[in-house]
Predict the 3D structure of the following.
Amino acid sequence: MKLLTKFAAGSMLSLGFVFLMVSASDLFALQNKENNSLESLEARQTAFAGLALGIPLVAGGGWLVWGLRQQNRKLLTQQLQSTFYHLVEQNKGRISVLNFAKEANITGTEARQFLDCKAKEFNASFELGKEGGIYYYFHI
């Protein structure tokens, strides 16, 4: 389903941009022509049709991409939550930034930000390890 949504979003964005480019080129051609011939009428109609088709396609493709990003963000949050609770349970409330980053497969900065947020949420305490690492203690 995700692959189909990605394909649909890409197709809609591509086709929409093609229509918008055709419309823009016809509008540019209209600026260079000052007569009201049949050719300029056709250029106006093509420009309007390009806008009428291009704008909804680009908007729809953008909406699909936005939905996929939201879905991915939600999935990442759920995975981080699951890893966090697993480590808290496994290590009896003691978690290091390095251990969490390794288990969650994220960078150290992301791990520290996540653990800082959880420490505030659960009123955790901190301890400096022998090697200089910070350990978070979540009271179970």
Notes: The helical segments are 2-32, 38-90, 97-104, 108-122. The chain is about 75% helix and 10% strand. The two ends are 39 Å apart (CA to CA). Residues 29 and 43 are 8 Å apart (CA to CA).
